[in-house]
Predict the structure.
Amino acid sequence: MTSTMQDLCRAAAAVGLLIAPAAASVQAPAEPSRNAGYSVPPGDMAHPQNTNAGIHAFTGFCASCHDARTDGAPDRYELNRLTPEQVLATMTSASHAKYAAPLTEFEKRVIAVYVGGRPLGSSDTGDAAAMPNRCERRPAFEPFTGSNWNGWGLDTGNSRFQENPGLAVEDIPKLTLKWAFGFPMANSAYGQPIMAGGRVFVSADTGFVYSLDAASGCVYWSFRANAGVRSTPVIGQGAGADRYLLYFGDVRANVYAVNAETGALVWTVRADTHPLARITGATTLTGGRLYVPISSLEESGAGNPKYPCCTFRGGLASYEAQTGKLFWKSYTITEAPMLRGRGTTSRGVNLYGPAGAAVWSAPTVDLARGRVYVATGNGYVEPTPQGSDSIIAFDLDSGRRLWVSQVRADDAYVRDCPGRYRPNVPTTNKSETCPEELGPDVDFGNAPILRALSGGGSIIALGQKGGIVWGLDPDRDGEVVWSRLAGHGIDDAADRSCGDRRPTRAASIRGSRARRRCSA
């Protein structure tokens, strides 16, 4: 949205056999606003639905009252119950106008989109009831018959291997588009669709989840979550009238179970109370339990000098699939955040830590060993905690941490902070919440893949954002067996010369320098 009050881009993402999110472009204001020493990052001005811009604007203008609940002001989670249109209307209402007066039109709208958790205009237009392509027939739904793709990795080990695809290699050149489905007012569709029982289940950043007919693309139902949905859904066995349940999470850390045949809500829980917590990775379902990964966008707002950085810890929660009852919840960082260093910045903003190690991808369940594995992201503060850029094993039944295998120990990254890996960010007026040595942000965005080896034993394989693929031994506390640099690395030519690397964490050595040696 621009200050000339143009409508937000009506980019429609499409789904056929694959999801193709549509890009949007808008005219940006010539100058970002500067109020009370704060400005929206200029690079975000051309992207009205960019969450980072919304977090920055909210932190700069709204957080001091809403995060502190001053005079009963609702917090971010309570505000999330409002649609973006309601948030925008509130900011321009007579009672609230004086607080929103310093904001530009752009800032009001990115705040409305951020708080509302979905693009403007999407709340009503995305409902299946408003669509002309409703399915006229409702054949019997049996999701566990035939060749299906249920969940992110297809199986609990996230192998992503379909033994019965119903498609041969020689069929690939013959494929043509059969149908397409547009998401009204959507800007992106990150979640992978699943297919089961002749239906496709898919979601978008509008917060709508859809059930479509796989043969024709007609829509059976839609469900509107409280915020955008990025996680891939999974179907499990239900009970009674709710024969089958569809599970997924939204970008406000809510978990849902809906009737897979009708789209009716069965239960919902909030996986984490941190105001910037979210669920991006797919949930993993097995043995009547749902394993939910928890991530956040705290690193996107923590570079603001007004933000008390940082308090989020990545997590994993286990729920009873039928009822949503919590069995256990564990964190990727064992220590709870507390005041760190000198305690406050020169502006009186509190400094907290440790923080980070979000879980962006689907958990991997190892039934034979009674474990669940997660891959984590970077730390947000220095020193980076053990648990960031790691593979962590938890006990399936209790959530007890069994082992941590950390492959990089110096990745303290906060967006919009200057450093070696963000050379275009100006060093002038650097926020005191920024790490002194900015890390490269080489999260594990890939879910761990558990595979049995032909010679016995198993391997955990997964890729890291820095271009490295790792092989870890689940029977030796995640010991690195091998690594390969699959593409150009992020550090230097020395990285690119390594065909095989065996990095470990050592108490005396931190970061990529600990791994310069390449095996013969």
In short: Residues 1-38, 40-48, 492-520 have pLDDT under 50 and may be disordered. The chain is about 10% helix and 25% strand. The longest strand covers residues 386-395. The first helix runs from residue 51 to 61.
